[in-house]
Amino acid sequence: MIEFTITTPAVLFPAISLLILAYMNKFVAITSLIRTLKERYIEDEDENILSQIRNLRRRMIIIRNMQWLAVFALFLCILSMYFIFENQHITAKNLFVAGMIALMVSLFLSLREIHLSIVAISLELKDMNHHLKEKKNILRKIEELEF
Q: What does pTM read for this prediction?
């Protein structure tokens, strides 16, 4: 049987801390982008901007849940360490497993958020390609008029 010691839950501390930091950086970047898009929407009232803001809002909710679960996982690891000190190893192991599950769900949500990010970028690039094609068509028509 594998020995369950105080260092077992402590191993997750650096990983969870780095995840929380990465999640916070995403959160800050998205809030800044939302503020910028909001100002652009007030000026232009472009439906595309509004759909981008909706997508970013969904992503913010997912990131909030990712952060919550990562912090909860850290909390469970700390509780696990406490119960190791109290010589309640079964409780400590159960809390540690619950913390790992919370961390796994957080990582799954991270994958979901990455997927939404890719969808948003794809839509933006598709819109850009559409505008480029329109400009090329206009230039082609102008060239035809010159001859």
A: 0.76
Q: Which of 24, 66, 65, 33 is nearest to 52 (CA)?
A: 33
* Total residues found in the chain within this entry: 147
Residue identified by tokens 């540690």 is 96
**What ranges do the domains of the chain cover?**
12-119
Q: In a structure prediction context, what are the per-residue pLDDT tens digits for the chain, which is 147 residues long?
A: 668 788 878 888 888 889 999 999 999 999 998 999 889 888 888 888 888 888 899 999 999 999 999 999 999 999 999 999 999 999 999 999 999 999 999 999 999 999 998 988 887 777 776 777 777 777 676 667 765
Dihedral, 94, 103, 54, 52 alpha carbons, nearest 10: -170
Q: Which of 131, 20, 2, 12 is nearest to 79 (CA)?
A: 12
Instruction: Give me 122's structure tokens.
Output: 């794809």
Q: Tokens 């409780």 sit at which residue?
A: 91
* 3-state SS, residue 134: helix
